[in-house]
Amino acid sequence: MADLIQIVVIDDNVRSLELLSAALDRDGIQIHTASSPEVGLELVRKLRPRLVITDLVMPRLSGLEVLDRVMMTDPAIDVILMTAHYTTETAVEAIRNGAADYLEKPVQLSLLRDRVNRLLETAQRRQSALNADASRPDVVKFEGLIARSPLMWDIFARLQRVAPHYRSLLINGQTGSGKDLLAQALHRLSGVKGRFVVLNCSAVVETLFESELFGHVRGSFTGADRDKTGLFELADQGTLFLDEIGDMPMSTQAKLLRAVQNQEITRVGSLDCRRVNVRIIAATHKNLPSAIRDKVFREDLYYRLSMVEIVAPSLQERMEDLPLLVRHFVQRFSEEYGKPIHGIAPRAMILLERYTWPGNVRELEHAIGHACMMATGDRIDVPDLPERMVQACKSWLGHPDGIFEMPATSHAEFNLSNDPGGSKLAAHESQLIARALSEAGGNQSQAARRLGIGRDAFRYKLKKYSLERQVDDFGLRN
């Protein structure tokens, strides 16, 4: 019994309970049903199930109220809401309140099984990560993206939840943080049949914005020598990705808002209104609330686009992913350049860890591409990295040439292919942190400065490598 996955299904329609139970019944799963929300909540409190499936409209308590009470009981329980009165707005509201998914009744049983299996797999992966060695957390592969940082896992889970339901969505994040990759993953997950169409708003001349988005008819303005199809029409039944939406002029924002709200567009120079079915993903590195206060961005457009908002973390916020990303880029560029590059010298990897990455993952990609191009052997070393990065790291260190005093080690000692989990790098990093702490007399702030990392990051690494005792030995807790 203890090993069975518990699922509670709540619906005041007894026939619906029977159908759902039969659809989900398989080895390893135990289904519990309740025809009233009160009985269902009592089962939740008693069993602490992995998953709750509940109808939205029920007597005495609604599905949203059931969701709230389940979240208060145990936020780790996934909840799927079902309703015969589906709207995008209520679906997004439910997901914002913590729902794992939102399905329209009558539920397609094959779709339900697919969604349930995904949620159970995600929950199992999450539990495995909690039980894993903290220095070797699990790697998650998701729609062409890879991560071992919990921050990215949460984003993957959110994308999976909102993908079937959103009509407009905003991705915020620093330049180079991968907003376009998240948008493409969201498009693939949404299951729409149309194409993924991109407009870089920072690269369009202001007078041509309307033509780019909505198209034009021949003769509508000087140079319009033929009809043109706009991006909204090209993205019909698919997704329109508006990159750097913060650079869109105010005059175009009003027309965009009408198109997003009404799903109707009119070509420049035409009186004919055309219906479209387009999902909108907007992305920006700017602070749009500040832009609203400065009167350069429309408040009503912001609220329309940000019904769901995803924040793409900077590389500094997900440094656990650095070894994975480095390995990925080394493999990619070594194949692209036809060079047998299999690893990276520890001192080069330490430099990558010390660098602050203002350009985020895109800057890392370019740096590894440069290094692979420059490398003369079968691994990347410090001289192969961009000079500006090497000089920047030197200027941050108390003894600028210290990184070059470390031996490069042999190829076998640190090889990205043979050490995908980064265990050798972890051992080397642990020794480096212990040495810095010893040289600083146990002063954490000084040790962090010697290593060129922030104090919070240093404390995280102390805990990661169980070095707190060394701090205690100095009698210092600074």
Automatic annotation (TrEMBL):
The keyword Flavoprotein does not apply. The modification 4-aspartylphosphate is found at D55. Residues 6-120 form the Response regulatory domain. CDD domains: AAA. Keywords: ATP-binding, Nucleotide-binding, Phosphoprotein, Transcription, Transcription regulation. GO terms for biological process: phosphorelay signal transduction system; regulation of DNA-templated transcription. Residues 145-373 form the Sigma-54 factor interaction domain. One of its GO terms (molecular function) is ATP binding. The keyword Amino-acid biosynthesis does not apply. Pfam families: AAA_lid_14, HTH_8, Response_reg, Sigma54_activat. This is Sigma-54 dependent transcriptional regulator. It comes from Edaphobacter paludis. The lineage of its organism: Bacteria, Pseudomonadati, Acidobacteriota, Terriglobia, Terriglobales.
